[in-house]
Automatic annotation (TrEMBL):
Protein name per the record: XACb0070 ribbon-helix-helix domain-containing protein
GO term, biological process aspect, one: regulation of DNA-templated transcription
Annotated XACb0070 ribbon-helix-helix domain residues: 12-85
A Pfam match: RHH_6
Origin superkingdom: Bacteria
Organism: Sutterella seckii
Amino acid sequence: MKKTAAHAADAEWNIAVPPDLDEDSRLFLASRGAKEVSFPLLVRKAASLVILSSLTREVKEEVRRSGLSQEELDGFIADGIAWARSPVAAARGSAA
């Protein structure tokens, strides 16, 4: 996805969390030698994981309802991978 000038910098969030989540997060980060600046990365990873999990669940449900066979699904996946590795996809990626 291409970033516009308006979205080039990180957005500032001010979030409130329950005290137990704050403490658990600090303990988790400290146990891995992380510094306080690791909070934004932790939030980004958590948000990405929630979004990816939700989209994955939705796609799996759509595929299940579509009636595609495993063979058809494997073919679509193979086609997508082949396209992503193609010069056309690489050219589009460098233009983004």
